[in-house]
Write a structure and sequence with these properties.
CATH topology of chain A: Pnp Oxidase, Chain A
Strand order of the largest sheet of chain A: 2-1-5-6-7-4-3
Distance between the termini of chain A: 22 Å
CATH architecture of chain A: Roll
CATH class of chain A: Mainly Beta
Number of helices of chain A: 3
Helix content of chain A: 10-25%
Number of domains of chain A: 1
Strand content of chain A: over 45%
Mean pLDDT of chain A: 95
Oligomer: homodimer
CATH superfamily of chain A: Electron Transport, Fmn-binding Protein, Chain A
Order of helices and strands of chain A: HEEEEHEEHE
């Protein structure tokens, strides 16, 4: 497991969006979308809904990559390659999306929940971390 | 070839960074980094240097994905999947990085050129375009 250094952790703790790449189902072509992000005890956490492309892609092939730029300096960036080692569902994932809404929107409850939606945390183990200050 | 709609074109024309995913050499694992971007006649152009990871990766496997958020509204984003159909080197690529320096830095000459560096334009044909307003 690669260490997230202080700069990477700070970039993930701040209200930056990260861009996560996963591998598509037909032939492993890359896909990339922006998302909220959390960091916990050396793991990168991305909360999505069951059935979304990044959830299904990373279930089939757990290899992912993420990158973020510093909101105050876009020439400072973090790029992480890693692996989804666990998909966490249930109450922990529902609570976690509210935590993300608090972080990014200042709201106690995630306001965009769809009827029937089930949240899932992609728990990502970093395997390579590049930071450019 | 998928059409870039007006919103996607605007997002690529403005001074937004895009995040580009390519596939790594050992086993096709995804990699993602931020980069400057240009758009020309329906193609997405990314200028890098020969030998950089995204150049070597996309030469081996031309499938790429890109995403950008709107600088004024991070919940509005474009996600593009496509293919590098040409790598353009020589004077055209050297001139183009100066054009990018003008766009992003307001400078006539790209100020970060390294000794011996050769620039290359990755000319990307969009195959799938998703825009969320």
């Amino acid at each position: 497991m690669a260490q997230l250094n202080d700069i990477a952790i700070r970039m993930l703790q701040e209200k930056n969006f990260v861009f996560i790449a996963t591998l598509g189902k037909t032939s492993g072509a890359p896909q990339v979308t922006p998302t909220w992000v959390d960091v916990d005890n050396g793991y990168v956490l991305v909360n999505t809904a069951i059935g979304r492309m990044k959830q299904e892609n990373s279930k089939r092939d757990p290899r992912v990559a993420l990158s973020a730029v510093d909101s105050t300096n876009p020439y400072s960036f973090t790029a992480i390659r890693g692996r989804v080692v666990e998909q966490i569902t249930g109450q922990a994932a529902e609570d976690h999306i509210d935590k993300m809404a608090k972080k990014y929107l200042g709201k106690d409850k995630y306001p965009f929940r769809q009827p029937g939606e089930k949240r899932v945390i992609l728990k990502i183990k970093p395997e390579r971390v590049v930071v450019q200050e």
